[in-house]
Amino acid sequence: MEEKKNKEPTTPEVKTPEVKKKEWYMNWWGVVIAILFLPLFGIWWIWNKTKASNKIKWVLTGLIALLIVVGVVSTGSNNSTTNTASPTETPTQTQQTAQPKKEEPKEDTSDLKAEIKKAYDVPGIEVTNLETVAWDECEIKLNGDYERTIRNPLQPNSPLNNPYPLFTKSDGTRFNPDTTAVKNVVIKCKINGNTRYGAFRFHN
User: Whole-structure pTM over 0.85, yes or no?
Assistant: First the structure.
C-alpha cells in the first residue's frame, strides 16, 4: 500500500503595504528651510499645499513679503556703508606710498653785513666783511659808475683797502677823488652760492 504523505499546510503570503515617502516640502523641516532660503517658495506652498483660509494665507503672504523687503533694505545699507568708507582709506594708502619731498635750500637775500669807510693812508675805500663766512666774486661800485672786481675771497673781519684808481668806468676812466666825491658804495658778493648786496651812503 502506498503511504500517503501528509501535506504541510501552506500559509498565505502577507504583503506589507508600501509606505510612500513624503515629498520634502510636505515635512515641517522642509517647509521651514524653504521659507528661510526661498521666500517665494513659501508663498507658493501656502497657496497650493495648505488648506488654510484665504485670510490666513494673505497674512502669511504679507509676513513673507515683509521679510523680503527688510532683507533687501539691510543689504543695501551695508553696501552703501562699505562704499562710503572706502574713499577715506585711499588718502592714507597714498600717504604711505608717497615719498617725502626734499626741501630745497632757501635763497638768502638779506643785506650784506659790512663796514665801509674811507681810507686815508692810501686813499681808497676800506671794506670789512662782518659775516661769519667768506665772500666770493665781489664787485664794488662807487656812485653807480666806477666798478672794481675782487678776485680773491674776502675773509671775515679782514679789512681790505681798495685804492680809488682801481675803480674804473666801462670806458676805462678811473675814479679821481680830487674831482669826484664818493657818495655811495654798492657791494655785490656771493655767499654759499647766493648773491647778496649791500648799499652804503657817505655824507660829505
Answer: no
Distance (Å, whole) CA 186 – CA 116: 10
Q: Could you read off the pLDDT of 45-89 as tens digits, one per residue?
A: 777 767 778 787 788 778 878 877 877 777 766 666 555 545 555
d(CA 41, CA 31) in angstroms, rounded, equals: 9
C-alpha cell at 77: 545699507
Residue 199, classed as helix, strand or coil, is strand
Measured CA to CA, the distance from residue 190 to residue 51 in angstroms comes to 104
Please work out, in degrees rounded to the nearest 5, the angle formed at the alpha carbon of residue 92 by the alpha carbons of 91 and 93: 90
Cβ neighbours, 10 Å, residue 37 = 9
Cα–Cα distance, 100 to 96 (Å, whole number): 10
Q: What is the pLDDT of residues 139-189, one digit of tens each?
A: 999 999 999 999 899 999 989 999 999 999 999 999 999 999 999 999 999
Closest-CA residue to 165 (of 180, 183, 186): 180
Q: Residue 23 in 3-state DSSP?
A: coil
Please give the distance of CA 184 from its chain centroid, rounded to a whole number: 53
Residue whose cell numbers read 647778496: 196
